[in-house]
């Protein structure tokens, strides 16, 4: 990691532990609601971290006591329209809208395509875009205070930047629960999120969530980065593939990655009951 971290207006990056980057969505006075510049900044942040050899695991949380994010900035979207498309001709207007939607999708997809595991640390309001971002992460932890909502139908849109595509995958299928929360925009709490498996842990406070996140990230960051990135890649590659297809993909992936010196290093350290260290990747 560069000794001087890049600065963003609405995102703060810190390094709470070696190889662990913590990204904070930083617009707390508006409950971290996303206006236009934030989308593009989020993509830039994750593109920066993705191939950065000084980073092995990424945490994302919302600044302030009240929200992970309250979602799309509905105030600015209500004034300008969620997406602007000037053309009068319907096809040209549709083409322009499609371009903008794809652009917004790519900002969220920068989180899911990050080469490093990403852990969402959620608290307070986690509305709309919060679920798009959460489902783009590999692991989700939350505080007892978290109020989740797939809010989009309440603002008159079918969610279009990730939730409807990723939530069924995260939840292991197009379950009745998935359809219920997406169709109704019903709020659900931390206990329910844990019970259905949307989050893997519920902690008492936001501070506890961050502490736990740093602990898990530190554990991940202590492993071979070749093995960790390979594990994320191969797990993600199960989507839409049969077991046979994924086994075949895994064999090709590992035919390159098993050549890593990390394998011998990890095995030798294990035999000697020592903790191995690994070169940057
Ligand atoms: C192409 C489209 C791509 C993406 C689409 C994404 C879809 C979504 O994200 S849908 C979800 C949209 N979000 C909402 O509808 C939530 C709107 N906010 C609220 O309902 C409430 O603020 C609340 C979250 C229930 C919290 O209420 P309360 O505790 O009373 O706090 P407030 O005083 O309302 O909020 C404090 C401060 O934050 C501003 N704010 C909160 N949420 C948003 C938001 N989503 N957009 C813009 N601003 C927001 C609120 O206006 C207040 O600001 P002040 O300047 O202090 O008035």
What are the defining features of this structure?
281 residues, alpha/beta, 4-stranded mixed β-sheet, 10 strands, globular, binds ligand LTDHYY67, fatty acid metabolism
Q: Beta-sheet strand percentage?
A: 15-25%
Q: What order do the helices and strands follow? A: EEHEEHHEEHEEHHEHEHHHH
- Give the strand order, joined by hyphens, for the main sheet: 1-2-3-5-7-10
Shape descriptor reads: globular
Model regions low in confidence, pLDDT < 50 over at least 5 residues: none
Helix content: 40-55%
Number of helices: 11
Largest sheet: 6 strands, mixed
Radius of gyration from CA coordinates: 20 Å
First-residue to last-residue Cα separation? 11 Å
Q: Given the helix and strand composition, which structural class is it? A: alpha/beta
Query: Could you give the count of β-strands?
Result: 10
Mean pLDDT: 95
Bound molecules: ligand LTDHYY67
Organism: Endocarpon pusillum
GO cellular component, one term: peroxisome
InterPro entries: ClpP/crotonase-like_dom_sf, Ech1-like, Enoyl-CoA_hydra/iso, Enoyl-CoA_hydra_C
Pfam family, one: ECH_1
Q: How would you explain this protein's 3D organization?
A:
The chain has 281 residues and is an alpha/beta fold. 47% of the residues lie in helices and 15% in strands. It has eleven helices and ten strands. It has helices at residues 36-50, 74-80, 90-112, 129-136, 163-170, 176-184, 190-196, 206-221, 225-236, 243-257, 261-271, and strands at residues 11-17, 20-25, 57-62, 67-69, 118-122, 125-127, 139-143, 147-149, 188-189, 201-203. Strands 1-2-3-5-7-10 form a six-stranded mixed sheet, with helices on both faces. A four-stranded mixed sheet has the order 4-6-8-9.
